[in-house]
Amino acid sequence: MEERSGLLEIKAWFGHAGAGSDELQDWDKEDFNCCNWGYSVACDSTTNRVIGLHLSGVNDGALGKDLYLNASLFLPFNELEYLDLSQNHLVCGLKNQGTIGLRGLRKLEVLYLGSSDFKENILLESLGGLPSLKTLSASGSKFEGKHFGKGLCNSTSLEEMYLQDSSLPASFLGNIGTTLKVLSLTGVDFHGTSPAQGWCELKNLERLYLGRNNLKGVLPPCLGNLSSLICLDLSDNQFEGNIAFSHLSHLPQLEDLSISNNYFQVPVSFGSFMNLSNLKHIECDNNELVPASSFQPSVPKLQLRFFSASRCTSKLLNDGFPSFLHSQSDLVFVDLSHNKFNGEPFPSWLVENNTKLNELYLRNTSFIGPLQLPQNPRPNLETIDLHASKENRELFNILSGN
């Protein structure tokens, strides 16, 4: 009965903002079993206690009217494991908002507060005391306090934090603790200042997303100490330097590397990456391919499935195609479009060596010499894109039978 009354109070709270008439219409005073109140209320099948509240966007259509969080409304739900309050124009963190209501949710594992306005840090600091909280998402939010979520550094359970497209102070990394495995900061506004400290302490990170942040300069060497990283996205920034000396090759678990649209120098040999046996996906479009030693281990461990390096040569590259591709046999996708390789024939060996190849893009990449095609059928090969240059058009006509 206490949870049922609590849900009706939450409905009234939304109602004061002019919201919830459609989304919460199943919250019926006449139905005493609140577990029957639609998808927005999830209950434990054994105890019938409320364990999930899906309240995203209830206030989204209320003419954009701010909804001031009253966290004490959630006091009755001490079995709650999942709470989604995103897309509700929430104003959070004020002193009179009863943050003790959220601190009482000791079983809460997942909390969504996306598109909220955190006027102060009181709410975030209180979240550091939630012993079960594993996932916090506050994407598209504004954080106006000087010290982002200082209490979060006390969390021993928080594993995933999604803050993409938010506005954050540059000092926030020092306040989020070291237990994180996933940190998404794509499109974050750092108020013109790149975070200078805090990277080296996030040693448990498995996935780090830093795309679209206007970050500049060389990569901090301590990125090479994040030995658990599986996925790293640095795309759409202004990083520079030769990636062979960036310590990225010191990440033994790395599977997915995205560095497109920067000012990196990318050696055609990829020599420093040849021992990364887990690396399967590289995107390095719109950087600069540069000559490098062609030395490779006799048995290179690197076997990619996806490789994209389009628009990486502003002038003729005498080294030709990235030499490491000769050792690859598991490729499914390759894009080397809009590059100026000097004196290269069509790479039939690339198709011959990779029987799983599905898509090959070589737009505006001129070839010389005879146009030789693989002798054996390739049933997995669906696309060869060779448009633009005269030589490529000739090959395209041969492939199409025209």
From TrEMBL:
Statement: the UniProt record of this protein carries the keyword Kinase: yes
InterPro entries assigned to the protein according to its UniProt record, in alphabetical order: Leu-rich_rpt (IPR001611), LRR_dom_sf (IPR032675), RLP_Defense_Trigger (IPR051502)
Coiled-coil regions listed: none
GO cellular component, one term: endomembrane system
Cleavable signal peptide: none
SUPFAM superfamilies per record: L domain-like
Keyword field: Kinase, Leucine-rich repeat, Repeat, Transferase
Pfam families referenced in this protein's UniProt entry, alphabetically: LRR_1
Record GO terms (molecular function): kinase activity
UniProt KW DNA-binding keyword: no
Family as reported in the entry's similarity comment: Belongs to the RLP family.
Name of protein: PROTEIN KINASE PLANT-TYPE putative-RELATED
Lineage of the organism: Eukaryota, Viridiplantae, Streptophyta, Embryophyta, Tracheophyta
